[in-house]
Amino acid sequence: MRKFPWRLAGALTATATIVTTLLLPTSASGTTPLTVTEAISRQDGSTATVRGYVVGQPTATTTVVRSNFPNDYALALADTAGQTSTGQMLYVQIPSAFRSAWGLRTNPSLLGKRIDVTGTLSAYFSHPGLTSSTAFAFASTTTTTTTPPATSTTSAPPTDDYYRNAVGKTGSALKTALNQIIRTNTKLSYDQVWEALKVTDQDPNNPANVILLYSGRSQSKTLNGGDVNDWNREHVWAKSHGDFGTATGPGTDLHHLRPEDVTVNADRGNKDFDTGGTAAAEAPGNYTDSDSWEPRNAVKGDVARMLFYMAVRYDGTDGFADLELNNNVNNGTAPYHGRLSVLLQWHQQDPPDTFEQRRNQVIYDTYQHNRNPFIDHPEWVASIWG
């Protein structure tokens, strides 16, 4: 029988090609992943899968923490597990659908693990990054989530799309971008606030009640007004700080208006926020002195994020004062609120919880159609205020 060496050679070549192909490392999507070094040099807005070791969480352009992770919103990748230079790291944005599985606050054991992430090669924290991520997987596996699981039945767009013009910015540029996003909101009258608060602050365990901010008491929605033990409308950014009163706009913005007991509201008055003082008589866990108010631990972060929102939303360009945070108390009628250093501590101490996140969503879906960015992206607080 005649031999056909060329056929044998061709078969061997094809076999070798198949074996080689099977041995090449590939991502869950079937493509060869980029190294972190390659991803850093290719910040062109294209979609790619990047393979690297989790080396920490970025909190600012040149800061990556390796313990006491503040939230589940970002991680840093490097080509080696022991890398400490932020210039050799890629900052990865973690969308909400993936945070419970891939965020470092919830999953600190991810530190040092080698993973594949698919997303857009674009700056994050003004640093080479991977944003709008669509898939995460351990590098040693072939399983991944290519479509984020549904996390809500509301009509809101993905928050990463809502904030697309802010992603990757820091400092004043981020503050300006967020202002442009959240300023286009529907405004309520002061009378409309009554009914809105009955929905935004509804007690999840008793739909006939609302939760009062400082006292934490669950109280009937119908017991609102001006009588003793009624609840009324608390301006967390005191309405005298900038002298906007109850005017439509800052005076009726649901993102800082909360139900509170009439007496407790009066005790807080227009005081700035700080630590210390004597116990508030009708609000356990709250403390006050002549110039400041300290809320209970469970809402310290809520208070801080409401003030951060106000300082970004109202920048002096829409007929109202330019609201700013400072490190003072006794701000009086000046358009300032303090104490910033304490608010930053409270923000870290008390991250957004389910109640706060639901409230943010309801305001977006039903009333003002804008969001508090510091509930959705707590890491942006450090980007703006340090």
TrEMBL record:
<keyword id="KW-0540">Nuclease</keyword>
<dbReference type="InterPro" id="IPR044925">
    <property type="entry name" value="His-Me_finger_sf"/>
</dbReference>
<dbReference type="GO" id="GO:0004519">
    <property type="term" value="F:endonuclease activity"/>
</dbReference>
<dbReference type="Pfam" id="PF04231">
    <property type="entry name" value="Endonuclease_1"/>
</dbReference>
<dbReference type="InterPro" id="IPR045939">
    <property type="entry name" value="YhcR_N"/>
</dbReference>
<feature type="signal peptide">
    <location>
        <begin position="1"/>
        <end position="30"/>
    </location>
</feature>
<keyword id="KW-0255">Endonuclease</keyword>
<dbReference type="Pfam" id="PF19886">
    <property type="entry name" value="DUF6359"/>
</dbReference>
<protein>
    <submittedName>
        <fullName>Endonuclease I</fullName>
    </submittedName>
</protein>
<keyword id="KW-0378">Hydrolase</keyword>
<dbReference type="GO" id="GO:0016787">
    <property type="term" value="F:hydrolase activity"/>
</dbReference>
<keyword id="KW-0732">Signal</keyword>
<dbReference type="InterPro" id="IPR007346">
    <property type="entry name" value="Endonuclease-I"/>
</dbReference>
<feature type="domain" description="Endonuclease YhcR N-terminal">
    <location>
        <begin position="34"/>
        <end position="138"/>
    </location>
</feature>
